[in-house]
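Researcher: Quick one. two chains, 843 residues in total.
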Amino acid sequence: MTDTAGSAKPKLTARASHSRETASWTDWLRTNSVYIAFALLVIFNLAVTPGFNNLYALRLLLFQAAPLILIALGQSLAIGTRGIDLSVGSLMALSSSMIAVAIGLGQPGAIAVAILTTAFVGLFNGAMVTFLRVDPLISGLALLVAGRGLAKVLLDGSRVGLPSGGPLGWLGMASYVFIPATAIIAIVIAVIVAALVRRTTFGRYTLFAGASRSAAFLAGTPVRRTLLGVYAISGLLAGLAGVFASARTGAADPNYIGVLFELDAIAAAVIGGNPLSGGRISIMGAVFGALLLEVLNATFIMNNIDYTYAQILKAAFIVAALYLQRAGH
Amino acid sequence: MNAPEHPDQPVLEARHITKTFRGFKALDDVSFDLRAGEVHGLMGENGAGKSTLIKTLTGFHAPDAGELRLAGNAARFTSPRESQAAGIAAVYQEINLIPERSVAENIMLGREPRIARTIIDRRRLNAEADALLARYGIGVNARTRLAGLGLGMQQMIAITRAVALGARVVILDEPTSALSGSEVDLLFDLVNRLRDDGVATLFVSHRLSECYALCDRLTVLRDGKHIRTGTPEELPRTELVTAMLGHEREAEVARGEGRDLSAEPRVLSTQDLCWRDRVRDVSIDVHAGEVVGLVGLLGSGRTETFKAIFGATRAEGGRITLDGTPLTRHTPAVSIGRGIAFLPEDRRAEGIFGRLPIRENMTATTLGALGRFGLVSRRRQVALVDEFVDELSIKCSGANQPISELSGGNQQKVLLARCLATRPRALLLDDPTRGIDVGAKDEVHAVIRRLAGEGIAVLITSSEVEELLTVCDRLIAISEGETAGELEVGGTSAEDVLALLAAAADRNPTRASA
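Model:
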């Protein structure tokens, strides 16, 4: 699932010397840092944190993780093109408001409207990046502000309750053998996105656009179409993440849903081995990056660490994980 | 800059240096010395160990065995900073200066004259920088913003900064590869002044003629080993090339001389092509099987002409036709679909995808055809790579090797394969052998001739006139964006071509200075 066209190790015919083995060991450490960090954190929690070795805790954690996984996937694609998508948190809120606005169409219709809306906003983001050549950091920032503003306007800034039955109720509550339905859907989508990156021309073009924009253009690959597609997919996934979060909350809540999620999504993608310099995409890494952040949150909450301090510790942890990734460079 | 106490004692000496990477000996028992007041050429093909030697001299790498001696004393540098403090300065193509600040600020960076230790004394800063510039014959105002200067001038500023900091050894790594003719002359002036000052200069270049014009001694490395050191008189060109290659250079490929290709159908044609003020009324015809050389200096508009033909930039006037059908408002993708392939000049920035393997680099353009419904067939990708690795004798460990690990020549062959995989009718090659070694150059020439033999129309440029004379059927001179004349290759010498370009430049004196 990891697509690292770049990290594919050359099969050198040279005799393996000591220095070569050291180098591949640090390579290995770097490529797998997110999995190592994840495993270490889980082991730590199983040993130390009361109540962590509990399937109900696992279920809760996965409920929290599903939306983050989705937006981390879109983020990985955007980062892979050497861009970034800052709009995802606000698009979750916009999606949430759109469900409430369109609930008259019935739940499936409202969900479809919500997701299509954010996909369209994502496409608009992509259009700003490709046609107006706005820096994605700036266009994303504009949509971060405007998206949440629109989400609040749609509901007059208030929280609107959503039906507790039907598809939304199912998404908010259902789980199978302690695995929430939303987590299963998120993983299935992750597999699809990984296949998209690895196996399709679109995925290759995404990597090319990130590895060298001008080389991609001169090689005749459809750079614009690719960028539009990437930001549209990121918007669509953010919309679905908003649906999941709303279903879990049981309400459309433009003030709280998705706040600061874009930063977690970026952290998840980068920790997972998607460098901001583009040209390398690791979908499995992004999924584990998202899980890692959720386990970290759970660690703080379950150990009763004050939220303020938890944020500082989380930042320290992210820096440490990124440092581990840099080791060997 | 003081002469050493013992005049024959080398300023910098490397003794029996060995450096191994992952079991590969990049330097194998290399000994070498640099004397005060000499310009020493370091030569060798790509992968010969030149870069590793430089990085060892500057403390970027620590040698596994052997030692460095600076002015007769053992020296051990653990970082470039230490070697700089000891008076060894390296100037690379990628210049480590601050583009948005003035020339004076860059030269004096870190040791600006101050008033009362706090406020920078701008007047003295500029005066001191002006004095240094005057001393080295650099005609630039110290108040100029660095980014406004050409690359060659920036390089000279970097060298000035290095000697102003007291460097006794200056290492110039491929300083001329991006410079125009007049910039090269200025650089040579500067290096000659350094020699007069007793500075030791290590000069690395792929251009033999420059090394012979400038250097007092030449050292050849091959496969990490020291092969020979000698004065230019002791090492004539043929011997030098033999030392670099380890064998005699193969006889050059036969060109299409004497073939009358004007009767062949016109494949690619431009009429009065215009783009901004860089391409002005350029008309070129290339017939099937013909290799046409666009000869001109860097900045003459040759690259812009290529890009306008290919659709990378939008031509603002004139016509482009392929097989008689016009191409208008086309993009690179459209051009490729119609049968034009383009090899860009700047391999690193516009050609390769550095992070990706050979497989993706070579198949980037033909990806859609290598599968169905947008799916990519990795098997067919690898088959294509295998085919071209064989056909172009690309040296690599396999389709999955990152392209960044290949030498320049092999990277270029991968990009050439990317072009050829589209089965083009017309091939645009913008300086295809830039920065690649002699052996690879000959191979690329052979491929170009073979493609022409198959009926492909080839339009090519090069910074080296000799190269165009070797590989082309016909030359078109371009100067200041205008075609300045046409030359048959038979019986034409490089001097004839340069005379034509010089005459063209004289006709446009105002623009030449712009």
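Strands of chain A lie at 2-3, 160-161, 175-176, 179-180, 251-252, 281-282.
Researcher: Thanks, that's what I needed.
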